[in-house]
Amino acid sequence: MQQNIISADNRENPGVRSKLSAFRTSGRIPAVIYGQEKKPLNVTVDEKEFNAIIKGGANIVLKIKHPGGEDTVVIKDRQRHPLTERWTHIDFQRISLEEKIKVKVPVKVTGECYGVKVQVGLVEHTMRELHVLCLPNDIPKEIELDITELRIGQSLRVTDVKCGKAELLDDPNQIVISVTAPKEEKVEAPVAGAVAGAVAAAGAAEPEVIAKGKKEEGEEGAAKDGAAAKPEAKKAEPKK
Predict the structure, then answer these.
(1) Rounded CA gap, 103 and 166, in Å?
(2) Long-range contacts made by residues 172-177, C-beta under 8 angstroms, separation at least 24?
(3) What is d(CA 134, CA 101) in angstroms, rounded to the nearest whole number?
(4) Edge-first strand listing for the sheet containing 155-157
(5) Which domains does the chain have, with CATH numbers?
(6) Are 87 and 47 in contact (CB under 8 A)?
(7) In a 3-state reduction of DSSP, which class is residue 27?
(8) For residue 1, with 0-12 CB atoms within 10 Å meaning exposed, 13-18 middle and 19 or more buried, which class applies?
(9) Which stretches does DSSP call E strand in the chain?
């Protein structure tokens, strides 16, 4: 692995927020160098210089030069501003080129998946990074997985991954990537019996109203006829 060189300046008052903001405004990224049972160093590095170095990937071995000397390091952690996406802090970990270290390596998918192109399936990324153990100069930039032959229902697990001299530390049975069938949205159709019952009920209700109306009309007519048929009462004759 190619070793890159970056320069750093000492950073005083590491906990003062105004100082941190001033560094970032001037194009310097606050950072810390630690590890190898040495005292941590608070430093700053040039933002443009750092961005140029990590274009080749984050898993790189760096030689960082500072006023107190120089250290061989890897980038252990990076933090970005959520809005500007500029680096706000970097952790550099001291290493020995003769000792194995644990790092995370990104997974890169290659190939045009059969399960997607022909079967119209979906690719699901369960793991986008894998943990490996290796010597610093053997750290892979990325781990490639060819998904060309994957069908719906098939997957690639950690045990299927090859990454050169690095030793995989994740569970061998854990799924890294899989192809699944698209989910269909179920639309519930109205039940035929319920619709027929509702129509029948509506049809039966209408004659009942008509019949009731006729009944009322009949009762009213009968009442009128009864009143007309009632004989007039005889007038009482005067007594002689």
Answers:
(1) 10
(2) 174/126, 174/127, 175/126, 175/127, 176/107, 176/125, 176/126, 176/127, 176/130, 176/145, 177/107, 177/109, 177/123, 177/124, 177/125, 177/126, 177/127, 177/145, 177/147, 177/150
(3) 6
(4) 122-125, 175-180, 155-157
(5) 3-95 (2.40.240.10), 102-180 (2.170.120.20)
(6) yes
(7) coil
(8) middle
(9) 3-10, 28-35, 38-46, 61-66, 69-80, 87-94, 101-110, 122-125, 129-134, 143-146, 155-157, 167-168, 175-180
Q: Rounded to an integer, what distance in angstroms lies between the CA atom of residue 131 and that of residue 170?
A: 6
Enter the pTM of the model.
0.68
CA 126 from centroid of its chain's CA atoms: 11
Q: Which two tokens stand for residue 155?
A: 């997957």
Tokens describing residue 118: 């022909």
Q: How far is Cα 3 from Cα 193, in angstroms, rounded to an integer? A: 76
Q: Whose structure tokens read 């941590």?
A: 40
Would you write out the chain's pLDDT as a tens digit for each of its 240 residues? 556 899 999 987 666 666 778 888 889 999 999 999 999 999 999 999 999 998 878 888 999 999 999 999 999 999 999 998 899 999 999 999 999 999 999 999 999 999 999 999 999 999 999 999 999 999 998 999 999 999 999 999 999 999 889 999 999 999 999 999 988 766 666 655 555 555 555 555 555 444 444 444 455 554 445 444 444 544 445 444
Q: Tokens 């430093």: give the residue.
A: 43
CA dist., res. 107 & res. 161, Å (int) = 10
